[in-house]
Amino acid sequence: MAKPPEEQTVTLEQALGIAVQHHTVGDLSKAGTIYEQILQTNPNHTDALHLLGVIAHQVGDNERAVGLIKKAIDLKPNFAEAHNNLGATFRELGQLDKSVACYHKALAIKADYAEAHNNLGVAFQELGRLDEAVTHCQKAIAIKADYAEAHSNLGNTLKGLGKLDEAVTSYHKALSIKPDYAEAHNNLGATFRELGQLDDAVTHFNRALEINPNYIDAYDNRGNTIDLQSGKKPFDHEAALDQCLSAISQDNFDDATAILHHVCLNSPYKTPTFIKQFIDACCEAITRMLDNRKFDIAGNRIRRLFMLIEVHKPFDILMQRYVDETKNQTILETLDTHENAVYLSMQSRVFYQNGQYDEAERCARQCIENTKVLLESETQRNEGWFLVRKNLNNIKDSEKARVILEELLLGIEI
Question: Which pLDDT band, with edges at 50, 70 and 90, does 413 fall under?
Fold first, then answer.
């Protein structure tokens, strides 16, 4: 007689198979839950560690992914797939040298690993080592002739080498294998544009957008190409962004911000990318200021950046450093009401990130008290509410946060 459903059990390998099925169809939540359950039973299950790391990479938690995949490799050094996926994770983190080393390890274990050759080709392309990139994309294709992504990546590399006709051939090959490959259509369109075949370019940008209506680069490329068709000079967002980053390096923060606004208005589809580059460049500039112990100007820049940012991990690390290095200084005494509130909010965030929830709440309450003046000012009200929201998020007890907000609403005149 069969067991009732509540008494049925599965082996770890059966559970892994179920998780992989969920993973394959894109149900990362269910797959991840099962991988974690497997690891509760066997913390050294290499496949579960590796695949949970892959999910972490897929959702953008690349630091966690590195830890999980490395543990799988420690337990199973000849795990070619894990080396390959670790390489992909390092590439996402911008650590291309480590990425290349991982792909080489994967290929040392499994020489006919087409995916690792392709990924290595992409990494070499990003490093500017285009001849090596061509070699590895071609090796991937030699192993797996119907590898659409490798054909497309070969096209990208050939385009970078100025071999536009050969690039077109590679993109066409990729599309003959995978007709709904939006990236290949977009890249083929960009190549046709460089060749002066503007009608063909627009056709492929349109096709890319039919496949993926949210494809930002294709919108941008199509718009620029249509401008060219009408004789209008397209907006050069790359040149403008270079001016923005140059202004940051010269500490012309106001000019840099104005240029950023202009760039985003003219290329709205790429706004998130532009903002990330802007914040990264600001963080690098502020880090140099802190290295030179220029705390006053660094503090001014950090406070201004804090009011532009929701979530940005490098900035959180920078903010932690600034708060740590200025905690023994009488910073608050030198700041006006607005700057004081921002600094307290930064302190609250740092305490919260460090698990010091009572201190985080103390600073948050003090900041919210200070924002009352801002909330009653027509010109500073929006920034005041922005600070209130940031500080309520730093209060661990949601009921306390609700009460604080109610008391604030009752205590201000707008």
Answer: low
Judge contact between 190 and 175, C-beta under 8 A: no
Q: List all residues 6 or more positions away from 163 whose beta carbon is below 8 Å from its beta carbon.
A: none
Token readout for 138 is 């071609």
Contacts of 276 (CB under 8 A, 6+ apart): 312
Contacts for 31 with CB less than 8 Å, ≥ 6 apart: 19, 20, 22, 23, 51, 55
Question: pLDDT digits over 147-193, tens only?
Answer: 999 999 999 999 999 999 999 999 999 999 999 999 999 999 999 99
What would the two tokens of residue 393 be?
């998020």
State the first-to-last Cα distance of the chain, in angstroms, to the nearest integer.
Answer: 73
Q: What is the DSSP letter of 141?
A: H
Closest CA to 72 of 44, 31, 108: 44
Residue 237, Cα to own-chain centre: how many angstroms? 20
pLDDT tens readout for residues 289-310: 999 988 888 888 888 888 887 7
